[in-house]
Design the sequence.
């Protein structure tokens, strides 16, 4: 189902999504929060498929933040199990569709079972090149930046780089996202209009799109709407409109 107004030649390269509203979706439907996450996985499947169909090469999903460790143990356990279940059940699809699984965040903080599955699927898909599916797990942008500063400081201390050479490209090369381009379009569902510590460095020039739809209700047509909205914006990167439209 292709929106006829969508220009396939003007799609963002990197779409990042804050998948929010699973709990409220469940409450609205008289269900337990857990069912909201279950249904959220279905949206993940649908959006990955659609991004692939549209040839969007980089899709990044915020699945678990460093702050999410403060949720009830039971809910954390359910989310971890869902991740393992997702990676196991989607594995063949990732292979068949030439998708590379990538993760960002403090993977070593995850339960061993999740770490093992992430490592296995990342390793087996590492040469796939149609799309990079990045899942942010135990991710926090400030923690990421803290890590970058520590790594660079150590290199300066060891004389592998000099302070004068520390620039944006060095910083980029130390980020968890070192293999990804900057985000072009950031989508957040559920009506909240905040960034919640997601990819703060990488969204410097991203277009931001907020929708009231809860994540489990977010489907192909909603992605199309976000993309259409993106295509109708003028990205100026600090220049004037006249300079862009020469
Ligand atoms: C936000 O909704 C959602 C999460 C914290 C988890 C997102 C996880 C999934 C969609 C499933 C697993 C992911 C993958 C990639 C297979 P919320 O619980 O904060 O909702 P609320 O704000 O309405 O309570």
Sequence:
């Amino acid at each position: 189902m292709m929106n006829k107004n969508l220009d396939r030649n003007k799609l963002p390269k990197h779409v990042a999504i804050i998948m929010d509203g699973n709990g409220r979706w469940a409450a609205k439907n008289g269900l337990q929060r857990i069912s909201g996450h279950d249904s959220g996985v279905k949206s993940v499947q649908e959006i990955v498929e659609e991004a692939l169909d549209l040839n969007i090469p980089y899709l990044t999903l915020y699945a678990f933040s460093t702050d999410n460790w403060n949720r009830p143990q039971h809910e954390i356990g359910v989310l971890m199990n869902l991740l393992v279940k997702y990676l196991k059940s989607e594995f063949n699809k990732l292979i068949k569709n030439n998708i590379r699984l990538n993760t960002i965040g403090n993977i070593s903080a995850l339960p061993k079972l999740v770490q093992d599955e992430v490592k296995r699927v990342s390793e087996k898909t590492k040469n796939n090149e149609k799309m990079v599916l990045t899942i942010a797990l135990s991710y926090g942008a400030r923690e990421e930046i803290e890590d970058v500063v520590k790594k660079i400081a150590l290199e300066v201390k060891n004389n592998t780089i000099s302070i004068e050479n520390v620039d944006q490209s060095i910083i980029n090369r130390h980020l968890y996202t070192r293999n990804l381009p900057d985000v072009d379009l950031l989508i957040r569902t559920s009506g909240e209009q905040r960034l919640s510590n997601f990819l703060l460095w990488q969204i410097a020039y991203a277009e931001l799109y907020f929708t009231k739809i809860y994540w489990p209700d977010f489907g192909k047509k909603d992605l199309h709407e976000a993309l259409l909205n993106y295509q109708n914006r003028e990205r100026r990167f600090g220049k004037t409109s006249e300079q862009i439209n020469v």
In short: The chain has a mean pLDDT of 96. The first strand starts at residue 14 and ends at 18.
